[in-house]
Amino acid sequence: MEQKTLAKMQIEVDQYIQQFKTGYFSPLAQMARLTEEVGELAREINHYYGEKPKKDTEAIISVEEELGDVLFVTLIMANSLDIDLTKSFNQNMAKFNQRDAYRFERKDGQTGETK
């Protein structure tokens, strides 16, 4: 199976959306959908790792599947707002690598303090 980059995923999602007359929903509707999907992810996390086990009558849905749904809706939102997620990811990683380089205890023992 071909490994897909964020850019390829955004193109594939756009091709999927473009086949429908409706096209992209409004940003507010997309935010509502993203919130719904994150809620479903939270429910699955709670079932597997929390104190609320699934009922015998509930469908088996994996955390992986729910994370995939969150990613799909995120890709849709990024496309509709003309956001390059690769660029966004790179900017965020640079920010976290600089700002949070020493925020948590590091395995290499570095503290960021100069002597």
UniProtKB/TrEMBL annotation:
InterPro entries in UniProt: MazG-like_dom, MazG-related_YpjD, YpjD/YvdC
Name of the protein: Nucleotide pyrophosphohydrolase
NTP pyrophosphohydrolase MazG-like domain boundaries: 26-104
Lineage: Bacteria, Bacillati, Bacillota, Bacilli, Lactobacillales
Highest taxon above the source species: Bacteria
Organism name: Enterococcus alishanensis
